[in-house]
Amino acid sequence: MASRNGPARILFCDHTSTMSGGEIALLHLVRAMDRSRFEPVVALFTQGPLADRLREADVETHVIPLASGVASVRKDTLGTGGLVRGMLQPATYRHVLRLRRFMLDHRADIVHANSLKADLIGGLAARMARKPLIWHIRDRIAEDYLPATAARAMRILCRHMPHRLITNSAATLETLQMPPSMVQDGPARRAFVVHDGMPVTAPPEPGRASGPPRIALIGRITEWKGQHVFLEAAARVHTAHPEARFLIVGSAMFGEEEYSRRIRQQCSELGLDDIVEFTGFREDVPEIIASLSILVHASITPEPFGQVVLEGMMAGKPVVATRAGGVAEVMLDGETGILVPMGDPGALATAMMRLLDNSNEAERLGAAGRQRAETMFSIERTARGVEAVYDHLLRGAR
Fold first, then answer.
1. 117-126 mean pLDDT
2. Domain 214-376: which topology?
3. Which CATH superfamily does the domain covering 8-199+378-395 fall into?
4. In the predicted model, what is the mean pLDDT of the chain?
5. Are 381 and 197 in contact (CB under 8 A)?
6. Which pLDDT score is estimated for 273?
7. Which residues does residue 112 pair with via DSSP β-bridges, in sequence order?
């Protein structure tokens, strides 16, 4: 199976050590891998919290620093010209050579790239080292998420550079526009959908939380996450339910401080300063979710998957989310939560008030969401799905 006796060594590459959605998913995955068959090794391009968490989980972790000028390039500013210039920088080329040597010295059996930058940089190094390569696509490769030229370039590369592709949802896979033969069972198959998963936690405590209803939107503060839509909806809910309190949990990253300032101003203009709390970045998100009456997801572009939605379901909370992308694969409208159109504060407010007005329905949806999360989206199920792709690659032609 592997190039030597013992477990196959899987070298994960990620460009960041910030605890964003893809990095949290990576941490969950390596913790759940079958160590008797697969040995995870992680190479990160920056130092940070993820490196510490991985080492705490007894995962061999290395930091191979990427030049700051390359590491700071944002995907939303990356056209084809920027992509080529970034890859041709001398610092990038030196990093690729260091990664190639690292892959050879650490006898990687498979290179598993976990982010878009790692796909390109780690992918080139893996090809130079002649290592089997997997790209784990956790972002929608679409023009509403990337510059059009970068999206087209990534779609072409997805067909030719990695030996296998894993996407976190069918919605993400659809944006790649792969030929049917590459996504269907058969000798030419290269792409697989493996939904992200979470550890199954203890069932929530029975009974309703005391105090006023608490409703939260959790995620990075950025316009496409829809904090401005949430605030508009909160203003409408406040009229009918003045006792409700609202939380915006998260902080701005990647140069998005201007949007953060705008929504704080919007909150004041709506007269919501006394009932909306901006918590900033929080490490205790599970505890915050446990205290909620409703969890809201308000993204105005389709989510690749919807990690926070799954967290709310696993905690047994009623979730209101926008109907698009991978979220529609995670939640079933009216059965395990409520789905609403994107960018529609009126529909969002109506759904929240429906749950506030009907506690029995809220409890029913929360319990059903918990059951679906346990059954369909456990991290063990995810790990076995990813391991099946490893087996497919190791025993098949590249």
1. 94
2. Rossmann fold (3.40.50)
3. Glycogen Phosphorylase B; (3.40.50.2000)
4. 91
5. yes
6. 97
7. 12, 134
